[in-house]
Write a structure and sequence with these properties.
The chain has a single domain, classed as Gcn5-related N-acetyltransferase (GNAT) (Aminopeptidase). The protein is built from 4 helices and 6 strands, in the order H-H-E-E-E-H-E-H-E-E.
Length: about 150
């Protein structure tokens, strides 16, 4: 729970991620701490992945947001956090990861493609959330990435 404010501040510094309320991140850090990770340097959170097990699919982790502070991008931190999270949840029967990614978000697409390849996975991309569902808020479509991993810890 204590990491919620720091995660909220990090997300705000990481466009194009949608920033939610600080309360939201406090609750994520409290309720989903076993399916989320943070990376710290000198006590400061510089990276975070938020996620949860889909209630109707206990074998599937939904990765909600991946954030890496601007001074730590390009160093493989996102991939290391995702691999660490995978190693945690795969021991509990999780065999698949889902996430949504806007078509223009090349770094996220590359992150999940690389993760899929490293874990003998099969990545499938399908249309998912259409932009009109966001109402007045200008937002791109979000495609669903599904990665069925064949390599577990």
């Amino acid at each position: 729970m204590a990491d919620g404010l720091s995660v909220a501040e990090l997300i705000k510094e990481c466009p194009p991620l949608d920033a939610n309320s600080t309360y939201c991140y406090v609750m994520i850090c409290e309720h989903f701490s076993d399916t989320s990770v943070v990376a710290e340097v000198d006590g400061k959170i510089v990276g975070a992945i938020t996620g949860y097990i889909i209630p109707s699919r206990q074998d599937t982790l939904f990765v909600w947001q991946v954030a890496v502070g601007k001074n730590y991008r390009g160093l493989g931190l996102g991939g290391r956090m995702l691999q660490n999270l995978w190693e945690q949840v795969s021991t509990r029967g999780v065999t698949e990861i889902h996430t949504t990614v806007s078509p223009s978000n090349g770094p996220s697409l590359a992150l999940f493609q690389k993760f899929s390849e490293a874990n003998a996975g099969k990545l499938h991309k399908t249309k998912f959330i259409r932009s009109e569902l966001f109402g007045e808020m200008a937002h791109e479509d979000e495609d669903l990435l599904s990665i069925k991993c064949n390599k577990t810890t």
